[in-house]
């Protein structure tokens, strides 16, 4: 694909992740997990600001009525919105995740339930899970036996859940009941064993296409709803981590990246590592679902 790749925030994030478009504020929110930062990029001004959270923040979702839901460390917290004067570190903890060392990717389903996964640095296969937040201190496993819970999103009609457990080198799909939040019938969707990297964050566009970031591969790939590889976008950074649609028409694809584990020489050869990128791929995305309090 020949889409132009624009760098909108210069390289520097150690582990950029979890982009989500906040339509009410007209900004893209994203995180630097290892720097414990939540970023706010305003495309109208080109300004990017960051606020520390006090722990590794790995996932964000807008909250209905204001504020942000965030996965910080092994907890899920409700954080104040832009208009509040409290720092993000004052957020209210809602639940603790029972497995893994910390939370990883997470999003809200069409009914406003928050799903978030975990990972462990101990390379313990199957020790983690994808969870559903059902209430204060109530989390329910949706997918068990996970090693590195990563990208997830739903089909436009909400009946299919796409999910990546990174070490499997695949994106799977499950049947999803949006009325009760159950996922069943897990099966392969896209085989990435021959890809140049490993599946990380993902997003689904308005046509049902699945966009997958390939960490260590420097690519974002689009797969059609039947699992066929449709587009490949190369980026000037190997550690591509996640993607999300944004902009007033949801016609821009924002892509996060990192530079964790890179030597000074590698960063010098790849100065865009850790940048936030923007692509106009010719398809539109969908508005992120907001978390709805219990």
From TrEMBL:
State the InterPro entries in the record.
6-blade_b-propeller_TolB-like (IPR011042), SGL (IPR013658), SMP-30 (IPR005511)
Q: Which residues form the SMP-30/Gluconolactonase/LRE-like region domain?
A: 15-258
Q: Which residues bind a divalent metal cation?
A: 17, 150, 200
Q: What are the protein's GO molecular function terms?
A: calcium ion binding; gluconolactonase activity
Active-site residues (renumbered): 200
Ordered alphabetically, the record's keywords are: Metal-binding, Zinc
Which prosthetic group or cofactor does it need?
A: Zn(2+)
On cofactor binding, the record's note says:
Binds 1 divalent metal cation per subunit.
Annotated residues for binding of substrate: 102, 104
Gene Ontology biological process terms, A to Z:
L-ascorbic acid biosynthetic process
Q: Which family does it belong to?
A: Belongs to the SMP-30/CGR1 family.
Q: Tell me what this protein is called.
A: SMP-30/gluconolactonase/LRE family protein
């Amino acid at each position: 694909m020949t889409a132009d790749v624009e760098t909108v925030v210069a390289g520097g994030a150690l582990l950029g992740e979890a982009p989500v478009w906040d339509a009410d504020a007209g900004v893209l929110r994203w995180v630097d997990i290892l720097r414990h930062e939540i970023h706010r990029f305003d495309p109208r001004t080109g300004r990017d600001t960051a606020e520390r959270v006090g722990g590794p923040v790995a996932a964000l979702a807008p909250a209905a009525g204001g504020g942000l839901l965030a996965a910080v460390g092994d907890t899920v917290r409700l954080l104040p919105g832009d208009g509040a004067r409290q720092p993000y570190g004052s957020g209210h903890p809602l639940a603790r995740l029972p497995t893994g060392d910390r939370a990883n990717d997470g999003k809200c389903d069409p009914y406003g339930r928050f799903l978030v996964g975990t990972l462990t640095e101990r390379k313990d296969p199957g020790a983690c899970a994808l969870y559903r937040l059902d209430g204060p201190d109530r989390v329910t496993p949706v997918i068990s036996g996970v090693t590195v819970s990563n990208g997830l999103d739903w089909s436009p009609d909400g009946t299919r859940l796409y999910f990546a457990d990174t070490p499997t080198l695949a994106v799977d799909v499950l049947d999803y009941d949006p009325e009760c939040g159950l996922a069943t019938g897990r099966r392969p969707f896209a085989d990435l064993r021959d890809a140049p990297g490993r599946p990380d964050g993902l997003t689904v566009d308005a046509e049902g296409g699945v966009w997958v970031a390939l960490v260590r591969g420097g690519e974002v790939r689009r797969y059609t709803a039947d699992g066929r590889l449709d587009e490949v976008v190369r980026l000037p950074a190997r550690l591509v981590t996640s993607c999300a649609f944004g902009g007033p028409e949801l016609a821009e694809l924002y892509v996060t990246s990192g530079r964790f584990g890179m030597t000074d020489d590698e960063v010098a050869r790849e100065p865009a590592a850790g940048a936030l990128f923007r692509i106009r791929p010719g398809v539109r995305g969908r508005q992120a679902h907001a978390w709805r309090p219990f």
